[in-house]
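TA notes, week 10

Several of you asked for a full example with nothing omitted. So below is the full record: structure tokens for the whole chain, then the designed sequence directly under it. When grading your own attempts, check the secondary structure regions first.
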């Protein structure tokens, strides 16, 4: 199964839990925070690009946060 990864950096003082809550409503199911920012993952068949892009643009305008989106191909872990 293919996944979409959204990487958000530069949230500064903005609470990442708010971003996680909103992206959860857009079918994102896994999140990882580190010193660089937030990674969020969604199955590609559930990914709603217009809604996610709209939210990320609003987030950028409000906080200055940067984001990138990439497809992650399936991987055999065996």
């Amino acid at each position: 199964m293919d996944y979409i990864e959204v990487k958000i950096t530069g949230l500064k003082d903005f609470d990442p839990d708010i971003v996680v809550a909103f992206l959860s409503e857009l079918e994102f199911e896994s999140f990882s925070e580190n010193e660089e920012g937030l990674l969020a993952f969604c199955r590609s068949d559930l990914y709603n690009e217009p809604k996610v892009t709209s939210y990320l643009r609003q987030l950028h305008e409000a906080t200055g946060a940067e984001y990138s989106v990439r497809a992650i191909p399936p991987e055999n872990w065996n």
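The two ends are 15 Å apart (CA to CA). Use that as a sanity check on your answer.
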